[in-house]
Amino acid sequence: MNVAEIRKDFPILGREVRGKRLVYLDNAATSQKPRCVIDAIREYYETYNANVHRAIHYLGEYATAAYEEVRAKVARFINAPSERTIVWVKNTSEAINLVAYAWGRKFVGEGDEIVTSVMEHHSNLVPWQQLAKARGARLRFFRMTPDGKLDLSDLDQLFNERTKLVAITHASNVLGTINPVAEIARKAHEVGAVVLVDGAQSAPHLPVDVQALDCDFFAFSAHKMCGPMGVGVLYGKEELLEAMDPFLFGGEMIGSVSLEESTWNEIPWKFEAGTPNVADVIGFGAAIDYLQSIGMEAIQAHERELVAYAMDALEELDGMVIYGPRDERAGLIAFNYREIHPHDLSTILDQEGVAIRAGHHCAEPLARWLDVPATARASFYIYNTREDVDALVRALLRAKEFFSHVPR
Questions:
Q1: 392 three-state secondary structure
Q2: Burial of residue 92, with CB atoms counted within 10 A of its CB: 0-12 exposed, 13-18 middle, 19 or more buried
Q3: Taking the model in full, what pTM does it have?
Q4: Based on the domain organization, do 105 and 207 belong to the same domain?
Q5: At CA 35, angle to CA 33 and CA 39, rounded to 5?
Q6: Residue span of the structural domain in which 361 resides
Q7: Whether the Cβ atoms of residue 86 and residue 80 lie closer than 8 Å to each other
Q8: CATH code for position 146
Q9: Residues assigned a catalytic role
Q10: Same domain for 286 and 338?
């Protein structure tokens, strides 16, 4: 990867923040957008803006073809068996909620069990809490190892004939842990359970093959992978999508409508009521093309090298506590430094032009498991460099200096 050339593709990286070069290390929250994505969205609005699927005119036909081609691109990107398995949603959260309502409320009943983990983003926990309450089901949780991995030693006891669903993140947005999804899916399927994978932190950073993982559902968002906000993807196995009832009702998702009753469209359109976010789907298609021009294997390798460099640099700082496994991990590091509250730390770093995240990162149960109120998080992507890590370290030392004069 030629990171210097890649950086030129991202207009925002050329700006200054508070008089300093922007060092953007909040990629787990959202990534920046390359010029080709911005141009693709502008081109749609300037040259073929029209609603899709309905119009019998040139613009409508052109927009529909472009829109549906992105669905096919997404299917190829995650090696889905068919574009029929790709459902457009707003984001990962909506994808998971869709499954919770359209699959969960139909197939989960009293006494059934839903297995998830302490490391989940709220988006992959709260919907299952609500489903369990509504259906009289029970939540169970993977045990965790001290270094922040799932303890798989008791899967034969955790998974049983009552297990209906296993909902697990592919990569933790706090610990960086990459979970062995294929192994979990194999054991879950042995007891007849369905497996949903939150891929929000994996799809942007490493090769994903949903058939090799053998997950039943896989959810991710465009905005974390160089695409625009407002577009997400739910992959689901065809037989499950066919068996599910629609989540939203209205135009496009119908087969036929009378005054008394209605029938539904085929998958995936029966889950896509109303006018979709056509422009940003088009932009997402440009983002996928961009990532594939670099190569997901190359992206993963770059982030591995950068995280290893950052881990070594941060561990040299006195008073640094890093969370999560030390071996293979996703491209982010959550930490606490010298008893400085992460919000204060983030404020000082911002003055130095360094953008990080601070808080519980929508993973409050995990913060309690770590026994901390919050953490700071630096997260990396294709345009980040060793120089960005060096800037982070310098800013942390500046924070140390600043707070050394603050009475405690």
A1: helix
A2: buried
A3: 0.96
A4: yes
A5: 110
A6: 3-26+296-403
A7: yes
A8: 3.40.640.10
A9: 362
A10: no
